[in-house]
């Protein structure tokens, strides 16, 4: 069984409704920015055009009320400390895959993102016998345009020896 620790960042949503001041450093481009005094400017949340004005107002109020539960950068993310999770495997022989070649620009992006995750406490240095390579696919913005690259682990070799979890997800009818 292979053991991992730490947590991962949650997804962040883009913007169109204004909310009150969030805790922490504030969201990325187009959102709240911090001032020298620590005051925050309003953040704009994205709201679908399919919503009525009344629904948008209700949603804005809900977001304003719970602004403290949103993270606008890695340092604003919560973490589960001193917990590990296990991946049951069919073969305990460690899987070690060499890193793929990366362009110099990709290496720089990877270095920056690793340093950011180290500083935020999401990852830690490891001397494990288990290793998977990193790929650097581009990601899309909310408009479908290709933007910056992001690091992704290639866990195909680990997936091949992972014991399948046969837990069946409930249907919406079973939940509601």
From TrEMBL:
Segment forming the signal sequence: none
InterPro entries tied to this protein: DNA/RNA_pol_sf (IPR043502), RTL1-rel (IPR032567)
Superkingdom field: Eukaryota
Stretches for region Disordered: 1-50
Comp. bias intervals (Low complexity): 10-21
Name under which the protein is recorded: Uncharacterized protein
Organism from which the protein derives: Klebsormidium nitens (Green alga)
